[in-house]
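Sorry to interrupt, but I need a hand with the structure work. Can you supply me with one protein entry, sequence and fold together? No commentary is needed, just the two lines. Leave the record below and I will have a look.
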Amino acid sequence: MRVFKSWRIILLIAYFIGRKESKNYRAYEIKEESMSPSLFPGEYIFARLAKEKPKRGDIVIYENKEKKFDVVKRVIGLPGEKISAKDGTIYINSEIINDTWAQDLTSDFTEVEIGSKQVFVLGDNRSVSTSDSRILGNIEWEDCYEVIYRYWPIDRVGQL
């Protein structure tokens, strides 16, 4: 049954990719290593416009408005929280979080308050991650696309 569901989703993805422009759904190729090992360069993913409330651990895509390109990162801080990093450890509301996604230490940053409609994002591979909230600041949730499915390579097809 899982294979059947996967093929139905792949056909749905193909339909949306074939459309010239879709405001609610988009397909992307991963071009950088900041999210490895969750996402590798050369993989293809499918995302939908963020609708539900953000959850810590969501993988999202947003535009780096300064450089005019889309970026993929992971939601670490949620609306209304205060986030900081010291000695490689992330703190949310002064409590250490279980940051299982980080592949290396997070560079220190001073406490940031996250707005009621914003998120704080970081790449999993923190040493090579750029265009994240440490540089760009908080990201507006309504501007995000939630990554929902990897459709290439075939041996890594599935929901994220």
The mean pLDDT is 87. Residues 2-159 form a domain with the Umud Fragment, subunit A fold (CATH 2.10.109.10). The first strand starts at residue 25 and ends at 29.
